[in-house]
From TrEMBL:
Cited NCBIfam families: citrull_CtlX (NF046062)
Database matches in Pfam families: DDAH_eukar
SUPFAM superfamilies assigned: Pentein
Entry-linked PANTHER family: AMIDINOTRANSFERASE
Official protein name in the record: Arginine deiminase-related protein
Coiled coil: none
The organism's place on the tree of life at top rank: Bacteria
């Protein structure tokens, strides 16, 4: 298994998707869902998640697809916000900023991971919600698994207390910065402005408000000359170019991103990416109304699989 790129992902297929009115206030990437045909939106999101899972499977990525038929979890299509998995058999469960997202945490998903993979422990930070302390998983953090760095932009979704606790438990160095979009709205999740892959990183450096911190982030992303740092413009961030994830697909790596993001990349940027990863664009325009894209839809599985038991004839 590649250190940075997981071979499997968890996805949740929503039956009642809609843009979450409770998250609109601090999510500058979200579209106001007022006036839309909610039944049509839900049907389109269901189809987009289905096609995305099929495309990933066809590319050679293992997809663990779960259904969500409840109508009170509009953002359940984004499981990476409430859970993450880590080499050595560790799982983290996170405190969520918006109350109507907290029921997205599902024991059946954790139980499936325990059955299919070697899970040694589950560290549950969700109790921090009672102290108004939040850390929304690999939305709030972008993790460099090789160099053990947790990049995080300051926001309602990334409390420094929770971040420090996670980094202490899991062995990451926190690297925190202030970042805003082109409208001077603080960026709510780090993974809409940054993607760390094995041999390259995508990042909206200009969104980082401090020039000194901007240079420090660029230097750390370069990682001892390991990576090409591909700078994204503010316009490209708005097209979700930063919201991508590298995956291991049998004999190669792929970069999963939305069709919208793929179209917004320049030819030169695509060429740099394709030196080490095949681009895999997925059509998710309805889901992107909620302010997240392909990266948010995929919770990577960084766990060792259990050997499959053979059936002994009776």
């Amino acid at each position: 298994m590649a250190v940075q790129a997981p071979e499997a992902v968890v996805m949740v297929r929503p039956h009642r998707f809609r843009p979450n009115e409770a998250t609109l206030a601090d999510n500058g990437f979200q579209t106001d869902g007022g006036g839309v045909d909610l039944a049509r939106v839900a049907a389109c999101a269901f189809d987009e998640a289905t096609r995305a899972a099929e495309a990933l499977e066809a590319a050679g990525v293992t997809v663990h697809l779960f259904e969500d038929e409840r109508d009170d979890r509009p953002d359940s299509v984004f499981p990476n916000n409430w859970m993450s998995t880590h080499s050595g058999g560790h799982v983290a469960v996170y405190p969520m900023f918006t109350p109507n997202r907290r029921s997205e945490r599902r024991g059946d998903i954790i139980d499936t991971l325990k059955a299919r993979y070697r899970v040694q422990d589950v560290i549950d930070y969700s109790g921090l919600e009672y102290d108004d302390v939040f850390l929304e998983g690999t939305g709030a953090m972008v993790l460099d698994h090789e160099f053990r760095i947790a990049y995080a932009t300051r926001s309602n979704r990334a409390d420094p207390v929770a971040l420090e606790r996670f980094c202490t438990n899991f062995g990451y160095e926190p690297m925190v910065f202030e970042a805003s979009d082109a409208r001077s709205i603080p960026i709510y999740h780090t993974n809409v402005m940054m993607c760390v892959a094995t041999e390259f990183a995508l990042v909206g450096l200009d969104a980082i408000t401090s020039p000194m911190r901007r240079n420090e982030v660029a230097e750390r992303l370069a990682g001892r000359n390991r990576r090409s740092v591909i700078e994204l413009s503010s316009a490209q961030l708005d097209e979700f170019c930063g919201n991508a994830i590298e995956l291991e697909a049998q004999d190669r790596r792929v970069l999963a991103l939305s069709r919208r993001a793929f179209d917004a990349l320049t030819g030169e940027q695509r060429a740099v990416i394709e030196r080490s990863a095949e681009l895999l664009p997925l059509d998710v325009p309805t889901i992107e109304l909620a302010g997240g894209s392909v990266r948010c839809m995929l919770a990577g599985v960084h766990l060792d699989p259990r050997p499959q038991r053979s059936q002994t004839p009776g």
